[in-house]
Amino acid sequence: MSLEADLERARELSVGELADAIEAIGFECTRCGACCKAVEGDDGTEEHTATVFPDEVRRLQDAGEEAYDWRDVARPMPYGVAEGENGPEGETFEWALQTDACGDCTFYEEADDGTGACSVHGDRPLICRTYPFSVVLDDETAAAQPMGEAVDREGSVRAHECEGLGREIAREDAEELAAALKKRAVRELEEAIAVRDNYGPTDADGVVVHDSEGQKRPDGSRLDGR
Asked: Fewest CB atoms within 10 Å of the CB: 26, 82, 109, 189?
């Protein structure tokens, strides 16, 4: 099925039905911070990796008391990037939220009692607003990028590992989450279509990021200078 067909299906999703599914699964954030932190695995520490759209990067740049640099907010998606003789090089698609020295999201804060918080909560990207849920358009195609192994599914809603699952959620909160989930499904597909349509191979040195706006350097500047 084409991306355009998937997009049409995403636009036709019922927020009410998505909210029903979220209610059936149940969710309440426990502020454990797991979705914002690096993951310890058998092969070492895996940095927190969450997709952020170009316009979301710009919004986050203005979220603090002082404006953030693009690189304070986002980094090139690591897939496709390797260490070369003169530093990182390669072509990749999209941006990931920036991480700190520990591999945690740069905007993650942890209180003395161990609970987590987001320093830009009101401006957080759609992927953060909708975790631990994603949309499934059919058994073969998911509107959302992988978020780890799915542990539950209800209708078009898939739930990913999170200790807050199974808890009672108010209808109003379920509807708000469902609306964000639909918006994210649509945005991801719109972004994928734009990336495909704007893609062009490049022989530029260093790292090149292909997003919906064209080809960019890691600092967010465009290769074409526009």
From this structure: 82
Give the span between the Cα atoms of 104 and 48, in whole angstroms. 5
Tell me the average pLDDT of the chain.
91
User: Each residue of 86-102: pLDDT tens digit?
Assistant: 899 999 999 999 999 99
Position 142 scores a pLDDT of 46
Cβ neighbour number for residue 214 with a 10 Å cutoff = 17
Give the phi and the psi of residue 176 in degrees, each rounded to 5.
Answer: -65, -45
Q: Is 128 helix (H, G, I), strand (E, B) or coil?
A: helix
Residue 39 β-bridge partners: 46
Q: Which two tokens stand for residue 215?
A: 């080809």
- Token pair, residue 12, equals 């036709």
Strands, E, within 22-124: which ranges? 39-41, 44-46, 51-52, 74-76, 82-84, 87-93, 95-97, 108-110, 116-118
Domain ranges (residues) in the chain: 3-216
* One-letter identity of residue 173: D
- For strand 74-76 and strand 95-97, is the pairing parallel, antiparallel, or unpaired? antiparallel
User: Residue 202 above 80 pLDDT?
Assistant: yes
Measured CA distances, 117 to 64, 85, 131 (Å)? 15, 38, 14
Q: 40 or 96: which carries more pLDDT confidence? A: 96
Q: Evaluate whether 119 touches 107 at the Cβ level (below 8 Å).
A: yes
